[in-house]
Design brief:
single chain; about 400 residues; alpha/beta; four-stranded parallel β-sheet; 17 helices; about 40% helix; disordered N terminus
Length: about 400
């Protein structure tokens, strides 16, 4: 009987990234923060955060994305979606530090839109975005080569969702495209179709498909799915020539969980319920819903909803819970669309200990976790963002 020899298994770079033991500067993933974080059980965390923020005064401006925990949101000077917050940061040039309680691509956008004298800080560098990670600069460059070989690149205008890395925004700017948010995606696509015959939509396939089919009247057959993990994206040259929308194979890990079964189940449990979902949901879920809209749209719809109405919301759980608590006194019943608890795991990396550590470090004169976009990338990413801002 022979003795089994131990396997010489070396972890792959991707495995190391997922374990938080390595970093890829061109990826949304990060590494754990340096320094010692306060204990999450520290009963003085709220007081410490408040004291550090007061010490910094107008030198710091704290941004809180809608999907953040309540414990973090309470210290935000403004709340909103990713682009609103980036613009709010740009409107505060007197703030020396912009603390962005969100994820990596959002902090990058804030750095692009703020002045060189301002430092954008992300409390936890590992707060990335799985959707943004699904499109790397190298993959998108290879996609463009595929489009060129198929003879269609000169007809294609890239449109990238705000939920993308600075590298992807820069690619979009270099190739004559624009950025969009979930609230202005239709206007962005209309503009792009005025510039060319086809659109390469990055990185969220669902927002691209829902906007094209639901809002603009295209058919599902007009859309093809480019898979960066397959040769030529898994598409033939003929499919690329026939397509109007070339959708990148990316999605939101939160919104992608909702299903038609979720919609049917909540309708059975809550007769008369209004189903309201985000356009990052799958096409069949959007088709089964009563209302579809961006985060800001969802908030405004609930604000305008009559007392006694029932709502099932298909978006991130932190926001849904906050809205349910906010409108409970108005007799509006608001529930999460799915039975499964589904927080945005990367958003939730920004917790009170990280925020306290960040604010106390800044108050002591130590700049930590600064997010900086290199000048060349910033130049073209800003060009793409400016095209969006110029949309009618």
């Amino acid at each position: 009987m022979t003795t089994a020899q131990p396997l010489d298994v070396q972890p792959t770079p991707l495995a190391l990234l997922l374990l938080g033991r390595e970093a890829d500067p061109r990826s949304e993933r990060g590494v754990e923060c340096p320094g010692d974080l306060p204990s999450p059980s520290d009963p003085d965390l709220v007081a410490r955060a408040r004291a550090a923020k007061e010490k910094l005064g107008d030198r710091v401006f704290v941004l809180g994305h809608h999907y953040q925990r309540d414990e973090v949101i309470q210290f935000a000077d403004v709340t909103g979606d990713s682009f609103k917050l980036a613009r709010d940061a740009a409107a505060r040039p007197e703030a020396e530090y912009i603390v962005f309680c969100g994820v990596h691509f959002m902090a990058e956008s804030a750095d692009i839109l703020t002045t060189d004298a301002q430092a954008v800080v992300l409390p936890d560098l590992a707060a990335g975005c799985s959707m943004a990670d699904m499109a790397t600069a190298e993959q998108v460059a290879e996609c463009w080569d595929v489009l060129t070989e198929a003879g269609v690149a000169d007809q294609v205008v890239p449109v990238s969702y705000m939920n993308s890395s600075a590298d992807i925004k820069a690619f979009t700017g270099k190739h004559g495209g624009t950025i969009c948010t979930s609230s202005n995606a239709k206007r962005a696509l209309e503009w792009a179709f005025e510039q060319g015959e086809k659109i390469l939509f990055l990185p969220d396939q669902h927002l691209g498909r829902n906007t094209a089919v639901r809002d603009m009247g295209l058919e599902l057959k007009d859309c093809v799915l480019y898979n960066p993990h397959k040769p030529n994206g898994g598409l033939t040259a003929e499919q690329l020539r026939d397509a109007k929308m070339i959708l990148w194979r990316g999605h939101c890990s939160v919104h992608g969980r909702f299903s038609v079964e979720s919609v049917e189940d909540v309708r059975a449990r809550m007769p008369g319920v209004n189903v309201l979902v985000h356009p990052e949901c799958k096409h069949e879920v959007v088709a089964a819903a009563d209302y579809v809209g961006s985060t800001e749209y969802i908030i405004k719809a609930l604000e305008a909803a009559p007392a006694g109405s029932k709502w099932a919301i298909g978006t991130e759980l932190n926001l849904v819970r906050r809205l349910a608590n906010r409108f409970a006194s108005e007799d509006k019943e608001i529930v999460f669309l799915d039975k499964t608890v589904c927080f945005c795991s990367t958003m939730n990396r920004i917790d009170l200990p990280h925020l306290v550590w960040t604010l106390e470090s800044l108050a002591e004169g130590k700049l930590v976790n600064r997010i900086e976009v290199d000048p060349e990338t910033e130049k073209y990413a800003k060009l793409a963002l400016e095209r969006m801002l110029a949309l009618p």
